[in-house]
Design brief:
The protein is an alpha/beta fold and 244 residues long. The chain has helices at 7-11, 30-41, 54-66, 85-91, 108-111, 123-136, 154-163, 183-192, 206-214; strands spanning 20-27, 74-80, 98-103, 140-146, 168-172, 196-200, 219-221. Helices cover 34% and strands 17% of the residues. β4, α7 (154-163) and β5 (168-172) form a beta-alpha-beta unit. α6 packs parallel to α7 and α7 crosses α8. The chain starts with 6 loop residues before the first helix and ends in a 23-residue tail after the last strand. The structure holds flavin mononucleotide (FMN). Flavin mononucleotide is lined by residues 1-2, 24-25, 46, 78, 102, 104, 144, 172, 200-203, 222-225.
Length: 244
């Protein structure tokens, strides 16, 4: 979650049983940083990016997590960028295990630049962009997408991410107007792709976590339910499908 999930925040989760924590999302090039400044002006302070060297900042945040002796998992960095270069650069940091391409952000200042959620409307561009990152990155690659965006085809998008060779497809299975995730969308992605699928949205207890797995997710992710830094259920009770 932008402006919230930094190294200090993620460190609080080190003993909760997660395999991976994601910091960010971050605006990572001149264009997205300037767009972020406009977003801040309308009250969304989480889009602020620390001044100074961005790579150094991310190195520091990942060090905070990895220096915790309890933490044995991976660290991912969610990034908004117009070009692939800043994402590739972040993948070169030793302690970064995964770079996550943000094809999820719907702030108009970001989509107006052709990145974030606007990539969902251009699966071919998303595939080319992701493939370039996959080819050059020193880390694994994830792509975060949003479901049920009018005018987009989630299966075409998912296939483009898989064809590009990404390691993970991270799906915010939001269902507009509903307090729970769209589990059907997860099932249909699972039936048409083989990529490692991380299901996200409205997981807040054991029941919703298990439903996401039973719908076909290989992994799950939580955002709002963790905002206090506490996990509201015991992750070890979730029965994962251990095929991957
Ligand atoms: C305040 C806030 C900031 C967020 N920032 C980001 C972001 O920068 N990048 C991203 O991929 N998702 C971001 N998200 C979306 C969450 O990661 C997640 O996909 C969404 O909240 C649904 O999951 P949840 O029901 O577990 O919260 C943000 C969500 C919130 C509430």
């Amino acid at each position: 979650m932008a402006g919230i999930t930094d190294g200090k925040f993620c460190r609080k989760l080190s003993t909760k049983g997660f395999d991976l924590v994601t910091i960010g999302g971050y605006n990572s090039d001149r264009e997205t940083i300037l767009a972020g400044k406009k977003i801040i002006k309308r009250g969304r302070s989480e889009f602020d990016v620390p001044l100074g060297d961005f790579k150094e900042h991310i190195t520091h945040q990942t060090d905070i997590i990895k220096k915790d002796t309890h933490w044995k998992g991976m660290v991912s960095v969610n990034l908004r960028a117009v070009t692939t270069s800043p994402i590739i650069e972040i993948s070169e940091i030793n302690e970064v295990d995964v770079v996550e391409i943000n094809a999820h952000c719907r702030q108009p200042e970001i989509t107006g630049l052709g990145c974030g959620q606007s990539l969902l409307f251009k699966p071919e561009k998303l595939e080319r962009f992701t493939h370039e990152v996959v080819k050059k990155a020193d880390s694994k690659v994830s792509v975060k997408i949003r479901a049920n965006v009018q005018g987009t085809d989630i299966i075409e998008i998912s296939k483009s991410v898989e064809n590009a060779g990404a390691d993970y497809l991270h799906v915010d299975a939001m269902k507009p107007g509903h307090p729970q995730a769209d589990y059907d969308v997860i099932s249909s992605i699972k039936q048409t792709t083989e990529i490692f699928l991380i299901g996200n949205n409205s997981i807040k207890d054991l029941k919703s976590a298990q439903k996401m797995i039973d719908a076909g997710s290989d992994g799950i992710s939580l955002a709002r339910a963790l905002i206090t830094g506490k996990l509201p259920f015991d992750l070890s009770l979730v029965k994962f499908n251990n095929s991957k």
